[in-house]
Amino acid sequence: MNVDETTAGHIQELRRGTVVLACLVRLRHPDYGYALLESLNGLGILVDANTLYPLLRRLEKQGLLSSEWNTEEARPRKFYRTSPAGDRLAAALMTDWRRIDAALARLDTGEER
Amino acid sequence: MTTSTLTDRYVWAAARSLPEAQRDEFGRELRERIGDVIDAHVERGAAPADAEHSALVELGDPLRLAASYVDRPLQLIGPKYFLTWWRLLKLLVAIVVPLAAAGVLLGQVASGADVGGIIGTTISTALAVFVNLCFWVTLVFAVLERSPGTAVPASTWTPEQLPQPRDDARAGRLGDLIASLVFLGVFAVAIVWQQFGVVWIGGERQPIPVLDPALWSFWIPYFLALIALEAVFAIVIYLRGWNWTMAGLNVLLNAAFTIPAVWLFVSGQLLAPEFVEAIGWPWGEASDVTVAVLLIAVIGVAVWDVVDGFIKAARNRGGSALGGY
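YS: structure for the whole thing
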């Protein structure tokens, strides 16, 4: 494994949980898979379609997202929305994310060693 | 080929690998996804037919895609069961294959097959048993891996399975030392004592030696000296532990004992003629089997002792493939 692959692997691991958090926060406003993919990538939260679609399915299965088929347009689309349980999880994840960020910042600036 | 057919075929190919209850919903989701990707390609100026083709290329192998949607493992045995599978397989191979091989060997010898046939049948049976063992054990674990909500504990590991560290190992070797010395002592005494007769006929002890008295000129002292060497060896093992040199010496000691013993036995020089007569040898049909059992027992013990030495040496080096858990 060369250095680039190693780096890519670590970055992927670091991002894995943040995609869940981003979905839960973003889907407080209902949306469908492709639009979610575009908007997350537009915000700089880079996620692959092969990761996102299965993730949506899994989060729905876990009751963190609810879904509804919208058949009003030319093609039917499945709209996902963050459930109350998903909201609670998002709050917990966000708290943890900020705690880790603050701790890393302190480590990085040398305040604590 | 119409535009819809390619997508239909893709959806069908992906959905058929899923449980039937999930197919409809999955198919609709996949159609939505494919449609959105095609739209994106068209927006960027592609022709609809090309757009569909490149959209499907982008999605990749439908089976892989379906597997990622349902978290279906694409490996035969995943991390959850790997260690349990590996430990059980090693244990079973170490026990079952030698037993089966010995059983076949015994049966072949008893039925009077020729040497080539005996070796060939034994090796092919051992291979067949090995392959079957690997296959069926692995199959069971592969099924387990794919069974949802199974009650089987993922790992049966307990702290008792931790190996002995090297420095504390001497206490663990004390048992081995005692067993070795007691065995060697009993053996040496038996060799001397047999001279005064161990055969009782009608409640009377007969003055018949078991071993041919002619062996006292060289071979019996030789074996007694070897027993003394073995005792020294056992004490050194207790003090210093196993290593590759000791395991090698163990091979020499075992060979020095077993090869002459087997040779003397097979060439009829080992047992005293009076003893052979007193026990009514040969025992007709049972003779060959008795000889085979004795030979396999003697050679088997020596081989086991040699292998055991190498396994212990490997363990002491810390983390060899032979060391196991």
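YS: worth flagging: The radius of gyration of chain B is 33 Å.
IM: good catch. Also Strands of chain B lie at 199-201, 204-206.
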